[in-house]
Design brief:
Pfam families: ABC_tran, BCA_ABC_TP_C. There is one protein chain. The chain is an alpha/beta fold. The protein has one domain: Rossmann fold. It is built from nine helices and ten strands. Strands 6-7-8-3-9-10 form a six-stranded mixed sheet, sandwiched between helices. A four-stranded antiparallel sheet has the order 2-1-4-5, with helices on one face. Helix 3 packs across helix 4 and helix 3 packs parallel to helix 5.
Length: 238
């Protein structure tokens, strides 16, 4: 579904992404992990089009999107939910989702957008909050709204950037179940996460980054025992 080849991005003298090669297969849940500053969010920004790479190539559904603007990537089926949620606080949950449905695909009729919102609001459990202003939601509900708004763009691949940050353990478990339901509905998922129990519970495959490079890849139990991964997280003395 997604293929990245030799992707690099520099910020001054810092190489935030260093010849990254990565693939995402249709139907899987792929986790990208690594210590702070490893280049994970930079990678998502490159995939979603918020940043342009200095080198490399990105293909989505067998089509090059390396230079495509973010909205073209969204229209093609690449959705993203952010770590820091930014809903329209004075608008209701329903209205926030309607924005995603109307603009997630070009020239979407209102009736079609409303049907999309109805499906997504049921999937994400937000129906009881449909007429609640977004500014009155709890953190967990805000996270659900961020996910739901991205789903309203009708993505084939959904990028999640630490959407469980700040949640209590019980809330994180609810979010894990929601992501599973999203995958089961036919959406492939690539997510960044620091909570290792969440990664272990969700990921079919894990990619580990450090200093802008991919240093390990495979099932969770395999990468968790990789000496390079232990060194990246714990230091050489480990």
């Amino acid at each position: 579904m997604l293929s990245i080849q030799g992707l690099s991005k520099r910020f001054g003298g810092v190489l935030a992404a260093n010849s990254v090669n990565l693939r995402v297969e249709a139907g899987e849940i792929l986790a990208v992990i690594g210590p702070n500053g490893a280049g994970k969010s930079t990678l998502l920004n490159l995939i979603s089009g918020l940043l342009r790479p200095d080198e490399g190539r990105i293909e989505f559904l067998s089509e090059a999107i390396t230079q495509a603007p973010p909205e073209a990537r969204t229209w093609k089926g690449l959705g993203r939910a952010f770590q820091i949620v930014q809903p329209f606080p004075e608008m209701t949950v329903w209205e926030n989702l309607l924005v995603g449905a109307l603009y997630g695909k070009p020239n979407t009729p209102l009736k079609v957008a409303e049907r999309v919102v109805e499906e997504v609001i049921q999937l994400t459990g937000l129906a009881p909050k449909a007429q609640t202003p977004a500014g009155e939601l709890t953190l967990l509900e805000d996270k659900r709204l961020e996910l739901a708004r991205a789903l309203c763009t009708r993505p084939k691949l959904l990028l999640l950037d630490e959407v469980m940050a700040g949640l209590r353990p019980s809330e994180a478990l609810e979010a894990v179940e929601l992501v599973r339901r999203i995958r089961d509905s036919g959406v492939t998922v690539l997510f960044i996460e620091h909570l290792m129990p969440v990664v272990r519970a969700l990921a079919d495959r894990v990619v580990v980054m450090d200093y802008g490079q991919v240093i390990a890849e495979g099932p969770y139990d395999l990468v968790a025992t990789n000496p390079k991964v232990r060194e990246a997280y714990l230091g050489r003395a480990s």
